[in-house]
């Protein structure tokens, strides 16, 4: 068993599910704390020392969507939504306002741990990134040293997952990237072939950088294969 330094906050009001998640985290060597309300979650986050949030949306005091919005006003802590809401529009809405990933109930311990390890890897990459490269494509610019994105010189807010996806395309301009390759690079090998998660993330990214997401200027779909960032 690996002992992780990261501290995970479990925000879940269903006692059985909370115990299940906490037991799984303990077995895998994660440090964790658990609360059963949105207010309790915000209080814990403000106190600090939280590295990852596992967030249920159906909380008793107010909706988990509001928690995401409030946290994103001042923090980039990775947020993994765990919810029974399985409609694509719900997932897109959560990712669009700042969640990093979305796991639908019911779920297996294996899938939960895979998603958590992905989030931890992204967190460590963000902390250790020391590159100073600035890449530009038409009106779109990415500053890899500061992890900032600009569209027509105006900063565009990106979730960590959206940033990782866009950075991957910038580093491979003109190349067709298969869905499998993108998933492995952004989420990790153990994530599998969840093309729906990729489509949802791509839709959110396009809404932020494309004037007309239906006719993308920057990242086009290569039907049946994957995606490509235009080089001309």
UniProtKB/TrEMBL annotation:
Sites of 4-aspartylphosphate modification: 56
Keyword Iron: no
Taxonomy, superkingdom: Bacteria
InterPro entries xrefs: CheY-like_superfamily (IPR011006), OmpR/PhoB-type_DNA-bd (IPR001867), Sig_transdc_resp-reg_receiver (IPR001789), WalR-like (IPR039420), WH-like_DNA-bd_sf (IPR036388)
Keywords: DNA-binding, Phosphoprotein, Transcription, Transcription regulation
Record-linked PROSITE patterns: OMPR_PHOB (PS51755), RESPONSE_REGULATORY (PS50110)
Keyword Electron transport annotated: no
Pfam families: Response_reg, Trans_reg_C
DNA-binding region: 131-231
Domain Response regulatory as annotated: residue spans: 7-120
Function of the protein: May play the central regulatory role in sporulation. It may be an element of the effector pathway responsible for the activation of sporulation genes in response to nutritional stress. Spo0A may act in concert with spo0H (a sigma factor) to control the expression of some genes that are critical to the sporulation process.
Name by which UniProt lists this protein: Stage 0 sporulation protein A homolog
The species this protein was found in: Fusibacter bizertensis
């Amino acid at each position: 068993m690996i002992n992780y330094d990261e501290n995970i906050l479990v925000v879940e009001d269903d006692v059985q599910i909370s115990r299940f998640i906490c037991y799984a985290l303990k077995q895998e060597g994660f440090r964790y704390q658990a609360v059963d309300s949105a207010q309790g979650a915000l209080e814990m986050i403000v106190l600090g020392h939280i590295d990852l949030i596992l967030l249920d949306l159906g909380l008793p005091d107010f909706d988990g969507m509001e928690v995401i919005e409030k946290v994103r006003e001042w923090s980039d802590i990775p947020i993994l939504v765990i919810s029974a809401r399985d409609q694509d529009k719900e997932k897109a809405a959560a990712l669009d306002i700042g969640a990093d990933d979305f796991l639908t109930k019911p779920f297996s311990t294996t899938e939960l741990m895979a998603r958590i390890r992905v989030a931890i890897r992204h967190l460590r990459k963000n902390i250790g990134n020391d590159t100073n490269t600035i890449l530009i494509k038409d009106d779109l610019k990415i500053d890899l040293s500061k992890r900032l994105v600009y569209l027509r010189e105006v900063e565009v807010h990106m979730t960590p997952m959206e940033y990782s996806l866009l950075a991957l395309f910038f580093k491979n301009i003109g190349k067709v990237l298969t869905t499998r390759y993108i998933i492995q690079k952004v989420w990790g090998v153990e994530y599998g072939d969840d093309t729906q998660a990729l489509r949802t993330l791509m839709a959110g990214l396009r809404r932020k950088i494309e004037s007309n997401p239906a006719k993308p200027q920057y990242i086009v779909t290569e039907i049946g294969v994957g995606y490509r960032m235009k080089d001309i």
